[in-house]
Amino acid sequence: MKNINDNAGFTLIELVIVIVILGVLAVTAAPRFIDLSDDANDSVTLAQMGAFKSGVNLLHAKWQIRRQSSISISGQTVEFTDDGWPKGSTDDSAGCAELWSEVFADAEPVTVLNNYTDTLSAGWNAFYYGEVCGYIKSQSGGGTVYPSNTPHFAYYMTNFSEPSAGYTGSPGEVKIYNL
After folding, report:
1. What is the mean pLDDT of residues 166-177?
2. Contact between 103 and 59 (Cβ < 8 Å)
3. Where does the chain have alpha helices with state H?
4. Fewer CB in 10 Å around end: N or C, the chain?
5. Which of 131, 120, 121 is nearest to 165 (CA)?
């Protein structure tokens, strides 16, 4: 007679050891194949854009109540366009950096670029392009706003259209690019 208990299967211990080995391999190898840093950087840009847009809309609402070309808020003087949209005191990248500080209560530092072809610094950078303030974050510096595929956002203070560069917007709009 044959013994019924002769099985050729795996024991529970062998299965557990194989699962543990596969788990260790997954934990050590997966990060090399799955890079989430680009997704995280995109999310930071989207969140900053949303906060900026909310701040701009709050300043616009304050202008609609007071109807003054400049309003003092928390010790800072905020300048406005004729339509009541906040702007910097100068029509250049320094004015965009100033606007950044006025919109955010505890603003991250921002580097002023002379134009959109300047080399980016690590962190947030501000640039001015014909009545548009643009903001772009670089992780390590280097590169430029144009040509680049780095996500950034633009704030339109007036009607502006430059189809060849892809920038078209109305006063108060905040749009994301390269995302």
Report:
1. 94
2. yes
3. 12-33, 37-66, 93-103
4. N
5. 131
